Amino acid sequence: MAQLQNVMITNLVEPAWHRGVEVSQQARKALAGQGLKRSQDFLSLGAALLLPLLAGGLGAVATNSSVSTWYRTLRKSPWNPPAWVFGPVWTVLYLMMGLASWLVWQKRPAHEKKISEALKWYGLQFTLNSLWSPIFFGMRRIGLAMIDIVALWSALLTCLVKFGRVQPLAGWLLVPYFLWVSFASTLNAAIWWLNREQ
Prior knowledge:
mainly alpha, Ferritin, 83% helix
């Protein structure tokens, strides 16, 4: 009788113990997976934030070569802000741009087609943005820079709409950037018009 009780207890306890071990192992794997995902998220966020800042830094090299010389000689609109304003404003906008792109990227693998299309527009506006400073300050081609910024404005508006459809917060994060590019377009147009005979 005692042996029968021992067998019954063993049959009851051992499967439960095994199930506990299996659950514990699954929990450890899930936590490890979450830790890996969290690390990957931090890395991808860092890359998304750093990329626009690097592009801005390269643009600043072209800007610095002319901002204290050629740019000072240009006629400007009355609403043209002082040169020192642009650096801090663009730094904040670049960070918001990078965060917006990361939020959209995080929506994968759902909405894969929408995300791919939105990020293509992001890449286009990013390229046009990166070209403006070398064209305006480096090459000193105000008219060509005007064409570039109009194309940037259009690409950015499309990007903003497509980001908003994937992740509404990402779309809203691009609104200040869009407003600033709209304002910068008026500055570019005014400088082109006021200096068209030079």
